[in-house]
Each structure stands twice: as C-alpha cells, then as structure tokens.
Amino acid sequence: MAKPADVTDNDWEAEVLRSDKPVFVDFWAPWCGPCRMVAPLVDELAGEYEGKVKFLKLNTDDNIQTATRYGVRSIPTLMLFKNGQQIDQIIGFR
Fold it and tell me: Is the pTM above the cut of 0.90?
C-alpha cells in the first residue's frame, strides 16, 4: 500500500505546484496528537487513490516557510492542490 512521501520547503514547487496530478498534503508535526490520529486515514486514502492523487506530508516544524506561506496556524491541516492551486482545505481532526 502506498504511503505519503515527505515534502520540504526545498522541493515544494517541484512536488506540489508543478505536479501533473492532484496533490493531497498533510501538514503535521511529530508532537501533534491529532496528527498521529489522522495519519492512518491519510495512509488509507493514499492507498485507495494510488496513481490518481499524489499524497505528501510536510513537517511544519522543519518547513516553516511553506507552512507560513499557506497560513497554516493549526495542525493537522490537510490541503488539496490541483494545477498548482490550493482547491480545498480541512483544519483539525474530525
């Protein structure tokens, strides 16, 4: 089963903005309890949509520039990008 790959500030543009597929990004941090709760669901979706949607994880502690650029103030934040544009967002664990 596919697992989300890590993305960083350095490869954000190539992996997300220039992707030819829709991209689902999980903004998270290792200390975040709700992030650990949502991770298995993101892993399951990654397997279900393998080949159709690219699934990535961005550690907000290590990649402050990208998290700030997209106004991530609360984690987990899940965003969907298509053609380099953010098209949807979910904040928190529901």
Answer: yes
